[in-house]
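Standup notes
- DV: blocked on the single-chain target, sequence here:
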Amino acid sequence: LRSREEAVCKDSTLLAPLRIDDGILAAACSTLEPLPANLWYPPAAYERARLRYRFGRAARPHCTVSNWRLIQEEPVRLYDYFRRRGGERVALSRVLVNVGAGDASADDPLAALLRGFAARDGTELPWRGVYFDAIPENCDKARGRLAQLGNITLRCGYVTPRGAAEALCQELASHGSASACSRKGATEASSPPPLEHDQRIEVDAMNLDIDSYDCSVLREILLVVNPKMLVVETGGSVPPPMAVAAEFHPVFLEAAVHNISGWAAISGGTTRAGGFWNGCSLSAVISLLHPFGLGLYRYAMLNAMFVRVDVATAAGLGGGEGMPWEPADEFECWRRSCGEHPWGNMLNLTAQGVHSHLLPFVFDRVRKADPRHPVSISVATPPPRSRPPSCGRVGASPEVVTEAGEA
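- DV (later): unblocked, structure below
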């Protein structure tokens, strides 16, 4: 179609082609198998890198979603599935956390969940939780929607990692087990000791999208909340196993964008330009979430969705009664994603050498952005025990998991 469009520009006797929406093209692209490996990269070398560095072990072709908007259907689908499994298998807390919620409607991955499962007939508790957004126009719209659908607090203003964790403790500590909030480290700069699985606030679903130091915020709030599923903006530029993350620095707040409309903010207008590296790559998020028991479920270039392993297993997503659910192979999900990569053939660089070729290339890209704040760059390497630990309460009587992984 694009070739024909170019031909039309040169020859007016040709009929103009139909204009096809980019979303439809992406969906059509996703129905096709990727090009044969030998046309992209040396297959054997790439396979060695994939097997060495992957966190997820399950090769699922459907783990890749063709368009990032389609991933918004997944929280609704999963929540409905968990809900039908009953409280004995998956105990739902009716708590939502949304950091970068926009107006709680347009392009919000939790919007359909919030509306679709609101407590209307008295059979379920009203939603509780905390929503954050930076732009007043979006805050005003979200506040009105949230008031109709539950007891959700809205915090308006740019959030910091520590500020987000403290806000969650202030608003949600009274809901269920939340001893994490009273421990040393929840409100102090020093890192707290490891938490047991029942010491954090149980959250049914969480979204994180702030176009800046996302991993810094995620790292802090996971010390106090324990989400069953999580959507994070990861972008599509940095391939696995490269973990690249912008770290929080006050310069982000100094350069914060304020005088924009709500829709401009939702469309990425809060992204700082000139001397900033924004966001958190797919492998950076995967390696951060692994110790907290969350694994990759869906990937859509811009956004990725994660599910807690113990919840997925208890709900039967492993394929049978008691069968463990395995996170998706992030290399395979990334390879199957559709779209022209802005940096060229990253798969070939991975095959040539993760440390010798891919890492220097990514480092050079970050260096050219000349960031005025810290950026962490590393090769994400899975621990010897590849499967994420069990880190939550999935039913009325949670299992206690030993260090050896036996219940």
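- Follow-up: Confidence is low (pLDDT under 50) at residues 184-195, 396-407.
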